[in-house]
Amino acid sequence: MRKFLxxxxxxxxxxxxxxxxxxxxxxxxxxxxxxxxGDRLIARLLFTCTYIVGLSLxxxxxxKASYVFSKDKFxxxxxxxCILSSFWSLDSDTTLRRILGLAGTxxxxxxxxxxxxxKEQLKLCAYMLGISAFMCILFAVIFPQYAIGSAGxxxxxxxxxxxxxxxxxxxxLSGAIFFFLAMTTRxxxxxxxxxxxxxxxxxxxxxxTTSLGNFIIITAAFLxxxxxxxxxxxxxxxxxxxxxxxxxxxxxxxxxxxxxILGTVGKDTTLTGRAELWPAVLQMIAKRPWLGYGxxxxxxxxxxxxxxxxxxxxxxxNAHNGFLDLWLELGLLGLIVFAIxxxxxxxxxxxxxxxxxxxxxxxxLVYFTYTILSNLTETTFLEPNSLEWTLYVSAIxxxxxxxxxxx
Length: 407
Fold this sequence. Notes:
Layout: H1 8-21, H2 25-30, H3 37-60, H4 62-69, H5 74-84, H6 92-115, H7 118-142, H8 144-147, E1 148-150, E2 153-157, H9 164-184, H10 189-206, H11 209-228, H12 233-256, H13 258-263, H14 274-287, H15 303-312, H16 322-355, H17 359-377, H18 387-406
């Protein structure tokens, strides 16, 4: 029974994680998800509270936090590039405001890494996502006008979130966390498996085809990583080569027959407008390929983003691709800095799994896979007030702390 008891600090952490993830206040405040300036103000106040809480808790253990802070330089160089982009930004005020949000989000990731082990962080996330899942179901029963119906589909669930794809992506992450904990934890595993099943059910109810496909891929990826990466090199390399070849062949087949495949699930090859959006974004990138338009400035009612809206004939909130948005905002400079840090940590995760077979190293690889998949059709890279970016920072820093402890 004691395993289920949590401290006051852990409760505060769970609340902060829920604010980053999405709370039931959003549908209640916005009366059907029509955002107003007052609603944004309340959301900003909530996020500001998380920054204050994170910095206050960091201050209490500043020695450990400063040590954690120093464990990865590339994420901080990337933050530095964001700051520098204010000098050439389309809207420097917007850039600076979003940088404050990004820094607060990243420092909360530092707090998580300095206070909790990686497994403790995932358990707190599991608590939070379990509560969120319960609220999504509760809202569907009590407030179906808020929880059901999204983007022209009257039967697609959106739960406590503003859009069905957000619900799908949130419980894709939830499924990855519950599956990982169920596979690496011995006690109370039935609860974790139940959480995994409920997460899959909510992804299914969201009718987000991308999230459902990624849910299956993440599950398969975990099993593949768990088995293959511990093989001898002479066996592992041919197996990985075969799987990579199979994956490329499958993708080529999918693209060649996209009309037929997507037509069976009510989709089309425009991927809900993304196939029209991405070429328009690339045209804008070509105008400023090296430094971009400034962090967070392009989509904030700029004249440049209005050109894209005129082209695609719908109000795109972002590029719906994390790589394109990163290039759009920070140019090749930011994209290269991110890619170097990402690849180094990815290769390091593979090495650590073979050298030190602990679960946190496996989670780093699984989370990197989730990050790549999520950013193919949505944007979570460098997103302020984002659960995904908070966990990205904490996962990298935590894995390096655990490595140090095992040396």
